[in-house]
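Per reviewer request, we include the raw input and output of the structure prediction for the construct analysed in the revised manuscript.
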Amino acid sequence: MMKSFWLLLFSLLIAFSGLAQGRDSLIYSPDRQLTWADFKGKPKFSDQASGAQITVTINLKLKKVNFWTGKAKYDAFAVAFTDASWVKTAYKDAYTLAHEQLHFDIAHLYAETLELELNNLDKSGRQPEQVEKLLQKYIKQMTDYQKLYDQETSGGNNIARQKEWAAKIKKDLSIINKVL
């Protein structure tokens, strides 16, 4: 019964991930930088210490299945939820937007790494349960890395550390783009 539940959940995730680019979401594109228009949400009372926040995740889509071998190919991609992303008026500046862009870039790095790992697994490693496990593992790792980024940059307030992180993420993006 539990196995059927996870298979159904995984199937729904795969089916709906293709619909990820809706009114309230934005799929990562290296050719498009974030703008403040992408931040449509409202801060909550509990968000008093922050000036802006982007909400991101990784989605997964079944790209194709080889008819002869049964081997599946996946597309993993970063998604930002615009209705859950917000900025306070006093923080609408290029520096804060660049900090939030790096959060989206980090999500993209983890999505592409997941895609590479999934597409290099043998057929037995691509069972829905294993694919779902890998997706959850990468989402957790991405979330932990996002927290580390904010911690080390003091939410972007440590300008020197922010520059270091920007250089590191730029380098990581160039590496992942060469692999793809």
